[in-house]
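> call design_seq(struct)
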């Protein structure tokens, strides 16, 4: 049985396959989530018995979060595979995440807020070498962080 973790918050998208909660395979996808996730999962579903899907539900790229959520939620329902999530800060050591311009998302003790930075910090998201399943939850709705501009 395998868990698959998807980090689709910025490019490259990162996907990891875990066996006994240890990373055994990883890939970086450099295209749009809507184009790359279906192709990758076609291969993953043929090669692994997937028992759990996990994704970073934001904040990050609005479109990438939405697409990955819809794709993974559909896959979860169709194949009866549990879907879990956690916020993006789990995958970048709680560093600020670029939102728009000099605005960044920052994780506070009990919330995610936005702050303006003179210089926007660079950030990378990393797949953990080992999964701690208790760090993820069944509240999988996307967290976009800021409302759409109208």
């Amino acid at each position: 049985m395998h868990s698959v973790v998807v980090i689709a918050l910025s490019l490259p998208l990162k996907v990891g396959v875990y066996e006994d909660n240890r990373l055994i395979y990883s890939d970086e996808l450099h295209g749009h989530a809507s184009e790359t996730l279906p192709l990758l999962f076609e291969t993953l579903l043929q090669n692994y018995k997937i028992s759990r899907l996990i994704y970073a539900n934001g904040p990050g790229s609005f479109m990438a979060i939405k697409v990955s959520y819809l794709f993974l939620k559909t896959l979860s329902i169709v194949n009866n595979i549990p879907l879990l999530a956690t916020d993006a800060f789990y995958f970048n050591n709680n560093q600020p995440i670029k939102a728009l311009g000099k605005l960044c998302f920052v994780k506070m003790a009990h919330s995610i807020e936005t702050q303006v930075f003179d210089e926007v910090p660079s950030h990378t998201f990393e797949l953990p070498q080992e999964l701690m399943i208790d760090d993820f939850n069944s509240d999988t709705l996307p967290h976009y962080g800021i409302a759409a501009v109208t």
